[in-house]
Structure formats: C-alpha cells, structure tokens
Amino acid sequence: MDAREVGTLRVMTYNLRGLREEVDALVEVVRTARPDVLAVQEPPRGLTGRARLRRFAARTGLRVAVGGGGARTTALLVVPHRSVREAAGMRLPWRVGLTRRGVATARVDGVRVVVVHLGLRAAERARHVDLVTRRLLRGEDGPVVVAGDLNERPGGPSWHALGGAAGGLQDAATAGDADQPTYPADVPRLRIDVVLVDGRLPVLGAQVPDHAAVGVASDHRPLVVDVHLPEP
C-alpha cells in the first residue's frame, strides 16, 4: 500500500489508549502507515490532553483537525496538505456511570469523515448510532467515511445501522481483503474496528498492520484503508 496513486486518500483508524503508554511505539505505527487521515479513539484527555495530542500529531507529521471539547473520546488528525472544512466535535448523550462520549467530524478534501467510539452497552450504542446517522449522515450529499471502534463484531446492529446510512456504506476491510481481527493487539481475536465507505470512494486496498510495534503500542491494532477520490 505504499505506492499511492494520485487521487488516493489513506484513512487509518486507531485507538490510542489515551497515550498512556508506549507512545514511541504508537508514533512508529502511525509514521509507518503514513495516513492522510487518522481517526483517533481514546485520545488523551484532562488538563494536558489537548497539548499531548498536538505533540503526538507533530511527531507523526499530522495536525489536529478536531480534538477536545465535544469530540470527547474521539479526535481527527490530518496531514497538512489536505484541505479541512467544517471541523467539529459533537457531544453524545451521557448517563451517570458511563463514559462521556463524542464524535469528531470534518470534510477532508471533500470527503465527510466521521469518527466514532461506541460504548460497551448495546442500548447505548444503539442510541448513539441513531443520533450520528440522523445528524451527520442522513442527507449528506458528498462522499462519506465512518471510522472508529464500534466495540461490536461485524454483522452487529451498529454495523448494519451505520452501513445503511448515507445511501449505504461498505466495510472497507472486506472490500480490501483485510478482514482480520484487531483486538486485542497482542493476540487479536475480534474485529471491532472499522472503516465504512460509500460507493463513490472505491477501495484500492486495506490492511491491518502486524509489525512488532503494533503488538505493544495499544490494546487495538489499526486498520488502514486507501480509497480513490472522485473527480472534483
């Protein structure tokens, strides 16, 4: 996947586990993959979270397009030469005892990118997916990518609901022959990480990296997808 065509967008989704450990390994994984867009789950939070995320982005050759605020458990990093518009974080409804979650979204080179990190409870996932599809996906007239950690296996309700949004989105890993487990990173057994794309973005390739740093950098393995951008 290193020899990219003109008009290709590389999207990588990765749970950073708050940058709590093995940051050098995380940097190596991202720099090796060379994404144009990094859909982040579990960015660092708290008083120093935004500064730490900016430092991480700089080390990987990216910039923070969305981070902190309403994005909460998500962030969006983009290479400097890609155009970014309509960047925003959206808070998701919260109940006492659960994690405060959010969504990061922006239009990158004309593609609406939506980053999600769904919860561990099925009922909460259903509520949040319904809100994301109604507010961000339904009625969207440009190409769409949804990337993130669904905390759910392929074929589950969240996959079906998000896949049916925006006129129908396909699982890029399956289309790109990379239907491989992503969790846990050291001995992966489940695929709960996803990049969904619509038909206007043909999948050129996909992979789940498996070099040494991947097994120690996070508790997830990333998914990296190349899509072909439509003509302007």
Automatic annotation (TrEMBL):
Keywords: Endonuclease, Hydrolase, Nuclease
Protein name: Endonuclease/exonuclease/phosphatase family protein
PANTHER family linked to this entry: CALCOFLUOR WHITE HYPERSENSITIVE PROTEIN PRECURSOR, ENDONUCLEASE_EXONUCLEASE_PHOSPHATASE DOMAIN-CONTAINING PROTEIN
GO MF annotations in UniProt: endonuclease activity
Stretches assigned to the Endonuclease/exonuclease/phosphatase domain: 12-220
A Pfam family assignment: Exo_endo_phos
Keyword Chaperone recorded: no
InterPro entries on file: Endo/exonu/phosph_ase_sf, Endo/exonuclease/phosphatase, GPI-anchor_lipid_remodeler
